[in-house]
Amino acid sequence: MAKADDFVVLTVLRYADACLPPGDFQPDCPFAQSSGSQHTCASECRAVATNLLRRNSFSLSGTQKRDGSAFDAKQCLLSEKTNEPGAAWHVSSLMLVARRSLSSSPYNIDGTRSILRHIDATGSLSYLAHRGFEVEGLVRYGLSVGIKLAIASRLSIEFANRSRTLAENSRVGEFSSQLLDGWLAEFQTHVVDVAGDPSSVGSLLAAALGDESSGHRRFGSLLDSWLMHAPLTDIIEWRRGDVEIDYAPENNVQVEKENIWLVDRYTETYMNMWSQTSVVMEYQYLQGNSRPYLPTDQLRLRSINHETVNAELARRAVEHGPSAGYMDTMQRQAVEYLEDGRRDAAAGIFEAARILEPHNGQAHNNYGFCLLPDHPLDALKALRQAEKLQGPNIVNSINQAVGNWLLGEYDDALQVANDAYARGRGDEDKAYLWDYFDAERELGVTVFDVMDYLCRFGLKLAKQTQDSEAIKIWMARVSDLPPEFAA
């Protein structure tokens, strides 16, 4: 983004923020509308900033290494030469493994302790400590949300399994009672006894993570206090231990912000996935107003320029959207369940999100996505509710088309696909979608380019309707795809 454009965006935003409808408008605003003595606001000033932000001359969320190549946290991990964390690993790789291992159960399906998970967790944290990271702060603050969600969701699944008649194809004993026993009494009292449906993973998880107004916060506060005061070895192994619980633990706000920022900085490739706290911390660091404890050589492993940070701050000011946070952590946990074939557990995560945030379209959309293969009718209801809340988008429409297709409603599915194609991809690029293209492979989720998926799935639908005209149209659309997709 050119500095001139950057200046224009920030100027427009400050101009707009100084405007106080309905009575105190900027007197020289070119977008103000007059009707007699009444003045109204067309809100077009923010559209100007939005258009500047969407120019192709820069990336809203991309960041560059010093050598000019795009930074990719996951690619760093994939390029490591050893399977276990080592001294030569990149900081991003160590941080990703630490986050993944601490957010996964310390027990195998058969109830034995997972040695591999223990090696990953302790090894990655040890090497991060050698690089200058304060591991206590990383675990208790930077990684705490993921640990908290993982423990609450595993306990919810175990209790739900105990509360209902298990289907023949369910994996009995998937979650070890060794994990459950340490938390049994408190989870029973503060979650199970107040949950609307103790056989529902979503109801239990919502009760575990709910706010004080819903009367359910006590277990969430217990986890917060445990994360602050339990020995680090107990946190790593998810052991309840005998630490006394303070239900209103005092956090060191600055230490919390700094460690949340460091985790985002080295695990999230794109800045639009960072928390608001992290974006502000990066801005303060670049301005020289913040001095992190981390050695300079480690901070320089990822270089982010002022223009990228300013653009992200401007984007958030324009869109007024929710910052990345709990929903993104829930999504990461759900993807892990989906990759393990645990669609019911993944759906439970977003069922809880829907209960906690009933007006959050993303929660309804993700819940419907998880239900698609097994409960397409319920999935469609959730997906349509998401569309009402957040408006139509190509990913939601693709999932609706898949739902119609699974129900045998091929004509309806084709109509949804046609409407989605007419609207275009919008701001969407890639997304997790169900891979229904290879019948020989076990069904799973894969990251697809959304337009590539839509065109190929539309052709699949056209062939099933045996509509020759529709087949021609979708074949032409597939052929118009870029070579890497059309091939």
Count of β-strands: 4
What is the strand arrangement across the widest sheet?
A: 1-2
% residues in beta strands: under 5%
Biggest beta sheet attributes: 2 strands, antiparallel
Mean pLDDT: 80
**What is the helix tally?**
24
Could you give the distance between the termini?
Answer: 33 Å
Helix content: 55-70%
Structural Rg: 25 Å
Order of helices and strands: HEEHHHHHHHHHHHHHHHHHHHHEEHHH
Structure class = mainly alpha
Shape: globular
Question: Any low-confidence stretches, pLDDT <50, length ≥5?
Answer: 54-69, 165-176, 320-324
| Total separate domains | 3
Structure commentary:
The chain has three domains: 3-53, no CATH class; 72-357, no CATH class; 358-486, Serine Threonine Protein Phosphatase 5, Tetratricopeptide repeat. The relative contact order is 0.08. The model is unreliable at 54-69, 165-176 and 320-324 (pLDDT under 50). It has a two-stranded antiparallel sheet with strand order 1-2. It has a two-stranded antiparallel ribbon with strand order 3-4. The chain has 487 residues and is mostly helical. It is built from 24 helices and four strands.
Write the layout of secondary structure elements.
Elements: H1 3-17, E1 32-35, E2 38-41, H2 44-53, H3 73-78, H4 91-102, H5 115-130, H6 135-142, H7 144-163, H8 177-192, H9 201-209, H10 217-229, H11 232-237, H12 253-267, H13 276-286, H14 296-299, H15 306-319, H16 326-339, H17 343-356, H18 361-371, H19 376-390, H20 394-406, H21 410-423, E3 430-434, E4 445-449, H22 450-465, H23 468-479, H24 483-486
Helix pairs in contact: 1-2, 1-15, 2-15, 4-5, 4-12, 6-12, 7-9, 7-16, 8-9, 9-17, 12-13, 13-15, 16-17, 17-18, 18-19, 19-20, 20-21, 20-22, 21-22, 22-23
